[in-house]
Amino acid sequence: MDTKEISLSAILAALYATLVIVLGIVSSGPVQLRVADCLIPLAAILGWPVVLGVTLGALVSNTFVYLGTVDIIFGATANLIAATIIFKLRKNLIIGCAAGSIAVGVIVGGYLWIYFPPPDIVGLNLPVWLAMMVSITLSSLIAISAIGYLLVKALDASGLAESLESMGLRTYLH
Fold first, then answer.
1. Distance between CA 100 and CA 72 in Å, rounded?
2. Domain limits of the chain?
């Protein structure tokens, strides 16, 4: 990675962490809509700088909104895996976003039940860990597969890739 890509990673990490911290009331808990996760699909356009940025952003924000070491490590790992999946599946972006959402839901939901009681999911009597996985997966589908997907499509249609390439950054979607 060159200095432009490192700078891009730092900007994305700061933006991700800021969104989580500022929108803390909806970004954490058993029912959450982590709006910052809409940045994860940007990996389809910008590649590894986004993967690194959203991973570091989760480390920072999960340290600030401290639930414990498990959340810091596995929350960042979930972002790393989701962004990597989306980058690798960028040619089929909606599948990549859905797979990334599921990865976040399974990983984060797999431990978040330790900190919070799970939400009631339409009256189903699910085990606590499964209820939390379903809840986090559903919210991730909204943030990543809906908002993030639309963000990528809008930025792609705007000609962002060409502008970034003219500034010396690599883009990957086309």
1. 18
2. 3-166
Region 42-55: what's the mean pLDDT? 97
Residue with the two structure tokens 């920072």: 60
Give the C-alpha separation, 61 to 55, whole Å: 10
pLDDT in tens, 137-155: 999 999 999 999 999 999 9
What is the CATH code for 3-166? 1.10.1760
- 60-81 burial, b at 16+ Cβ within 10 Å, e below that, comes to bbbeebebeeebbebbbbbbbb
pTM: 0.91
Which residues, at least 6 apart from 8, have a Cβ–Cβ distance to it below 8 Å?
46, 49, 50, 53, 169
* Angle, alpha carbons 66-100-54 (nearest 5°): 45
36, 62 in Cβ contact below 8 A?
no
Neighbours of 14 (CB within 10 A): 14
